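Sequence only, no structure available. Ideas?
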Amino acid sequence: MVVEMQLPNITPLEENIVCTKKQELLDLIYNAFSNQEFSGLFLKMFTKDEKEKYYATILLDRKKLLAAQIDLLNSKKKLIGSDSVETLKRIIDYPLVVDLYGLDEISLKLSITDNLEIYNSTPKVELEKIFGENKIESAEVLEKEKLLEKALERKKEEAKTEPQVKVQEEIKKEAPPKKEEKPLEKAPKIEKKPSAPEIDVKVVGGEIFKPVLQEYAEEILKEIKNLNGVSVERVGITGEVGSGVIYLHVNIHGTSERDKSSREILERRVLYFANKHLPIIWRKAGLKPILSNAQAKITAPGESEEEKEEKKEVVIPRKVESNIIVEAHESVKPYFSTYARVIFKDIQSAGIDIDKMLLDIKGRSEHEINLTLWGKASGVSKEEAERIVNRILRTHAREIGKALNKYVTVHRVELHLEEEEVSSKAKQIMSKKEELEKEIEKLLKEAGVEELSYITEEKKKEAEEALLKSKVEPAIEELRKRLQREFTELPNSVFRWMNLDWEFKNGTVLVDLEASFDKRSTLLGIVSDERVREDITRTLEKVTKEVSAEHNIPIKLRNTEIRIR
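Reply:
I predicted one. Tokens follow.
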């Protein structure tokens, strides 16, 4: 019987990374080993062909393969030993979905002892033999080889012209000062290189993470300095902190005297460096970095201002209409542009006149919606307007989430509404109301408050009972049904049962919830209790807020007990 490979309880460096070819997987491994803390790596890989689906778990150090197990999901077989190595050599040419775990020296040795049976049966094959010796060279190595070849050619040419140069030097020995003047004229040209590039780091929603982004920028600069003929002028990084993630906008500008095609290649290398060092943010800040926007511009000296003008023109197509602006990644922008027009009409029909609306969509695999709106709301308070807009956004977010098959949430709604001036008649009515209230208070004191208190208490109880029947009970029933539906759709758990109690106190519905779940096993193993509990809590809070806003009743969670087994 084959034993399943065991992994230490650690956080992955990379999750669900798609590698379309062997070289991309190799680059991923070498980038991880660029961190000197890691002595080994644990990889989980999924792929398929026409006949079979493959789930591979491999353990390796910096030089060789240590252990490998491949599950054939259709055939329900497990391969270890030389069979697993041969299959691995074949499937790494397929498109792969990869999870990557970094192991320090102790974690590596623990992983070997935990998987001793598979370790003993696996041939210790060097990485070069698995990936192929001729394909290990990176693009940088190839560039250096080309430069070396050019240097050798120059040396050969210099060797041919040496006799002529010696004769000319003997003839011109009488005028040595002229040779000294030329380097003095050229010296200032060498000093034109900027002493230090400008690094501009901004963080929205968490200044504490600014040093981490500063370190990320410096690592990118170190890599760029290794490129020949590039001078970096500015590195701009803006981070927006979300719930467990940070969205990054990276803008790098530099100059080079090379031709246009060479500069374009350098730009791609710079963008590669921006992606390569993202794990620094994950390790240091504990936030998942999402590269929302990355731009690299390598221009010839003197062309920087023209490039900036081009960048400004790129922003113009983001306008869907004259008063609707959508900020989103190009892959999903058409969907959210249509979505923005429908939102605009629904908000207008709800009684809010819109002057301008900005819809900012963050993320690629998951999306957060941020809405900023300028307008007027006649006869509606700002709080009521926010509830209306939130309800409309959530309704459409669910629809577009189903269409894209992605998790779409409403993150922030910001309304800038003009306050209407109160008319003179309204002021007169308000003043008369205050006078009447004062007269009633005097009459109550003269009649005796104790006699009327019993009547008022009875009226309060009747009002509460009427409110319970008309509003609260339907809202709680809606909350119960929606929670059951949402809990059954959670990806990492199986919903078993739920018990929901509530109490109406001081105008607020206090909810007590007890629920039980089973952990769901996936291709990547069983999900942790913390992850399951986090998904359940997030869903519970989201549904409670939605029902509270839709029924206009304050609902709060008082006690929650989640049982996971």
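Confidence is low (pLDDT under 50) at residues 133-144, 170-194, 305-318.
Hope that gets you unstuck.
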